[in-house]
Every structure is written in C-alpha cells, then in structure tokens.
Amino acid sequence: MDESISDLKQDPLISKKVLRALSKWTDEREATTEDEESYHQYDTYIWRKWVFMAACIVVMVVTAGLATTIGPMDITFVETYETMWNHITGNITNDAFDYAICTLRMPRVVMGVVAGAGLAICGAAMQSTLMNPLADPYTTGVSSGASFGATLAMLAGFSIFGGRYDVIGNAFIFSLIPTALIVGLARVKKSSPTTMIMAGIAVMYIFNAFTTVMMLMADPNDLEAVYQWQVGSLAKASWDDIVVSLGITAIGAIIIMFLSKKLNVLSTGDDMANSLGVNAAQLRTIMMVLVALITAGIVSFTGLIGFVGLVAPHVVRLFIGADNRYLVPAAALFGGALLVVSDLVGRVIIQPAVLQVGVITAFLGGPMFLWLLLRKNSNVW
Amino acid sequence: MCGDPMEYEVRNLSFGYKTHHVLSDINLKFDRPGLVCIIGPNGVGKSTLVKCMNRINKGYTGEVLIDGVDIKEMTMKDISMKVGFVPAGTQDIFAMTVMDTVLIGRHNIQGWRTTHKDLEIVRRALEMLSLEDLSMRNFNELSAGQHQRVALARGLVQETPCLILDEPTSNLDVKHQVFVAEMLRALAVVDNKLVIMICHDLNIAARYSHEIIVMKEPGIIYKVGKPLDVITPELVRDVYGINCDVIEVDGSPHVILKETFDEEDE
Predict the structure, then answer these.
(1) Comparing C-alpha atoms, which of A175, A142, A300, A303 is closest to residue A231?
(2) Closest partner CB to B186 (pick from A22, A38, A380)
(3) CATH number of the domain to which B51 belongs
(4) Which A residues in the span 352-371 are in contact with B, Cβ-Cβ below 8 Å?
(5) d(CA A200, CA A204)
(6) Contacts of A26 in chain B (CB under 8 A)
(7) Cα gap A183→A196, rounded to integer Å
(8) C-alpha to C-alpha distance for A299 and A141, rounded to whole angstroms
C-alpha cells in the first residue's frame, strides 16, 4: 500500500491536499482519546434512545393505572395496582375491586395499549417503506378496507373463511385490496407521496360507501354496534378479543422489528437498497402485508381509530430520529401510551358523556396531518 | 485495504423496455484497478448500463461476470459485497444523522448493533471528505455538495473491490468537483479498487480517468481507451454533435468546446 502512495506522489494530477486527506482514510492508527470520546458520544446518542423508550414505558404504565381508576366505584391509583398485583399473584382480597378492575376496566385499557402500539408500528413501517410521511393505515385506506371486511362479516354474515375468525379473516382479506393498490403505486416511480394518499382517500370513500349501503340494509339491532364502531372505540373490548389482537400484533411487530435494519436501508432509495443486497420490492411487499395483518387484527375489534399511526412515529422521530431499529419499538410504546391517554381524555372531558377514542385521535391527528402537508420537505421529513 | 482487485466483464449485454431499446450488445472488460469514466450524451443508457452491472436492472440479456462468475448466479448480497454503488441524487425523507446515513453502507458487514470498528471506518471516511464536523447533523439539513460527499462516504465504507458512481460530481462547485475526481483517482490506486463513474464533464473525465468508455446513440459502446487516445475533436463531433479543439495539458487531453451543429450544416 505504501508503494502505491509513493506511486501517487509521482502522479502530477494528485494534489498534496488530496494526499493529506487520503492519509486519513488509509492510516489505520490506534484510536486516540479524542476518537474514543467521539465513539462514546455515539454510544450516548444510542443510549438516549433507550432512555426515551424507558420513559414511554413509565408514561404508559402510569396512564394505564390512571385510566383504570375511572369508573363508578371509587378505587384509588395505588389500590388499582394492588388489585392488579393481587390478581396476578392469585391472592385476591377484595372481590368487588377485582371484578371492577380486571373484568370491567382493564380490557379497555389493555386493548388501548395493543391497538395504539400496533397502529403506531404500522404507521412507522409504512412511512419508512413507502418513503411517505403522510402514510398510516388510516390515510392509505388500509383501515377502511379492514373495516369494510369486518362489517361485511358482522352485518351480512358473508365471510371468506367462516368459523370463529370470520370477522378478522374478512378484515385481513379486504385490507389487502388497498395494500395491493399502494404496493402497485409504489412501483410507479414518479408517484409522489401525495398521489399515494389521494389514492388512499379514494379507496376510503369507496369502502365507506359500501359500508353505508350495508348499514342501510342491516338489521336495526346490529346497527348501533356498527355505528359506534365506525368511529373507533375501545369500550367493547373483552379479554378474548385482546388475546387474538395481541397475538397478531405481537407476531407482526416482532417480524417488523427483525426487518427494521433493512428498513433503514430501504429508506435510502430503491437503487441504493438493491445495491446493498436488500431486495426493495420484496421487502416492501412483506412489510405491507404485515401492516395489513396487524391493522386487521386491531380494526376488527376497535373499529376505525385514525391517525395514531401517523402521529406516534412523527413525535418519536422528533425525539430520537428516524433510525427504524429504535423508531419502531419506541413508536409502539409511545402509540400505546397515546391511545390510552386519548381514551382517558375522551372519558373525562365531557363527563358524564363519553367521547369515543377515535374522535379524540382525529382531533389530534387531523391538525398534525395538515401541518405535515403544509411544511412539506422541511426538517421533519 | 480491499484485497485483490476484481475482474469485471460484460458480455453481449442488451437491455430494453417494451417500447424502446436502450442498450445494444455491450461488451466490456475491466481487469485492473483504476478510475474508469463513462461518458456519453443524455439518455444514451449510461445509468442503465451500470445498473445492469450490479443487477439493479434485471431484465437484460447477455452476461455480467464478476471474477468469472455470472452475477445471475450470485445473491444480491454476494454482489453487494463486491460492488458498491453511489446513485445519482440522494434520497432521505426522514431526518437521519450523517453518521447513521454513512453507517448504512456497512449494512452487510455490521450486525444489528453498531461496533466501534464500524464507527472507526466511518470516522476515517468522514475525515477524508472533511465531513467530520457534520457527523451528528441531520442529513437532510446539508447542502447538495455535502449530500454528494456523504453518499460517497457511504460508498467507501462498504469496502468493496469495485465502486460504481452515477454522476458523483454533478451538483458540486468546481472546487469540489476537482477534489472528488482527484480523490477517486487516488483511491483507485491506493485501495486497489476499480472505480467506475458516470461523468458529464468531459474535462474531468479526460484529466482524471485512467480509462474512458464512450457511449453513443443507440446505446452502444463507441470507444474505450486511455484519455489521450479517445478524446479527439472527431469523437466529440460524432458523439455529441459539437465542434471543439483538444489540447494537451499535463499529459491529459483538454477539450475546448465550440459551437453545436446539425448534420445539415455540413
């Protein structure tokens, strides 16, 4: 190598400046204390991301506790946790408390955590895969597809799989329709982020129209439930629902986590990703199918909760940056906390009436969506 | 640093879309390290060619061989360990630090966690390109010229025996154009690397490359050789349709552009 450097010194075209710069590249010197310090700085920078996640967990646990204190029976914050602890350890001391907390109140909160986390992961994954800051399951019509499929099973009794999982199976199949459209659009190179969202909104209108038609023809007794569910609500959650929803979300989330490093590569552009050995088109398809699956697993039980997937990743990015290895889990934690807080707000803001969580997230997410649209291409994205 | 130089061969390569043909029967052979510039008019298929060479474009006919192995028989990851790529224009929608952006170049080498070894190589690349002060800044806050240098750093830290760059000097002011060109020439020698770059500036190509490949409509290789043998007024007339003088400076040809013309002016 030294030989080639001396060759270079003979080369009249290579300036001294470049030779000096080059020596910084070729010189494999021992790391100086200054270098060590800069590596530690980087480690600290990574450490901060973990701290942020820890903070999200704390917020989530505290708000979950707060949310379970609300109800006709007065149970304090500490008693709530005591009851939960007693339930887990099998040492139930107060049966009334146990019933109120674990059977009546907890499902709603746990469903909030699962749905918030799942939708936030979907949002983060979609934004990175589609390189589109406006993408989330709601804005791209994936949720509407799932919702239509689920309604179809619930009202018309039509289902593709049948059996116990008819609702969720239908939701998944129909959420794949907008997903396929998006994947197709992403292949057309010139399609801008906005085009994709417009297509999503068009799909949303179509599915919503179908859903409305079905509601007109449905049995009035079923209608109430479906109507509630059009806005997104955690009120009907049961432990049985949670097991299914959590299972699906967890499987999807784990796979997305494993792929998060590749997702970083994908966000540098398709050509770059391919040249680094990441099959861009394939990864995009896998991600979008996972997103559809998680969305179906959530929407089937909660209805259309919008914008969580949009808001959570953007807020998290402001704190810890866009590295998907950290963004995905952090967005999940933040999304879980966000949805629990939103539901909490919805329940206390106009007491004794209860606002559905979907209404609160729309109030949060709508302005955020507008803001993102208007400050296009600035720092956040 | 990168071990043995690589042998790269393109045999009878053709590529086209449904409506039109882009590349016709390309044959090229690279068997020693050095800076190779590909020049030619807009739309002649330069980018398409280099993207066929690392299988970003898949639907070509013919063969591309790396060290004698057809790349169709290699996985994308295998290819990525041999050939680094710096695309034209950079894309990063969400805020990532320069450090993390360059670290992406280590994707195949690093594990899930970033090690100090990865950080060291990135530091060396950033220092060489005078980017070390920007390492914790967000990539999308940088100027176009800085973007280009970050992309170059990302290509270098891949430590591949071959690096392909699509217009690495576009968007740069003259100082940085010359700096990057000198640097690529020097790197090719020092790292025993085959550096292939697409370039629109005839004089940069003529001065700094060890070898020039000239492409011409309709997607053919017009001439390959050392700059002094290739860059002539006749060639520039034939390929670009422009009159010029060529003088020799420091042992390299230098093109002085004159007026454009059409066939009918003859």
Answers:
(1) A303
(2) A22
(3) 3.40.50.300
(4) none
(5) 6
(6) 1, 190-191
(7) 10
(8) 12
User: Six-digit token pair at B88?
Assistant: 């034209």
Measure the CA–CA gap between A181 and A144, rounded to whole angstroms: 13
* C-alpha atoms less than 13 angstroms from C-alpha of A214 in its C-beta half-sphere: 23
Alpha-carbon gap: A261 to the closest alpha carbon of chain B (Å): 7
Please, which residues bridge with residue B10 across strands? B28, B64
- CA–CA dist B143, A276 (Å, integer): 25
CA dist A318 to A75, A132, A375, A380, B104, Å?
Answer: 37, 16, 15, 7, 20
Asked if A258 is an interface residue toward chain B (Cβ–Cβ < 8 A), one would say no
Distances in Å between the Cα of B76 and the Cα atoms of A85, A150, B225 are 51, 40, 30
Residue B134 domain boundaries = 8-265
Is the pLDDT at B1 greater than 70? The verdict is no
Which structural domains are found in chain A, ordered by start? 117-376 (1.10.3470.10)
Which residues is B249 bridged to in the sheet?
A: B252
How close is the nearest chain A Cα to the Cα of B25, in Å?
23
User: What pTM was computed for the model?
Assistant: 0.88
pLDDT tens for each residue of A19-71:
888 888 887 767 778 788 888 888 888 999 999 999 999 998 898 888 888 87
Strand order across the B162-166 sheet:
B83-86, B162-166, B194-198, B34-39, B211-216, B220-225
Is B259 inside a domain boundary? yes
* ipTM rounded to 2 decimals: 0.86
- Does B1 reside within a domain? no
Q: What are phi and psi of A276, to 5 degrees?
A: -95, 10
B123 → closest Cβ in A11, A38, A269: A38
For residue B218, pLDDT beyond 80: yes
Looking at beta carbons, which residues of chain A come within 8 Å of B78? 277
Is there a domain that residue B2 lies in?
no
Give the C-alpha distances (Å, rounded to integers) separating A177 from A142, A156, A201, A294, A301.
Answer: 8, 20, 13, 15, 20
Count how many domains chain B has: 1
The pLDDT tens digits for A91-136 are: 877 888 888 888 888 899 999 999 999 999 999 999 988 888 888 8
Q: Is residue B234 part of a domain?
A: yes
Q: What is the pLDDT of residue A2?
A: 47
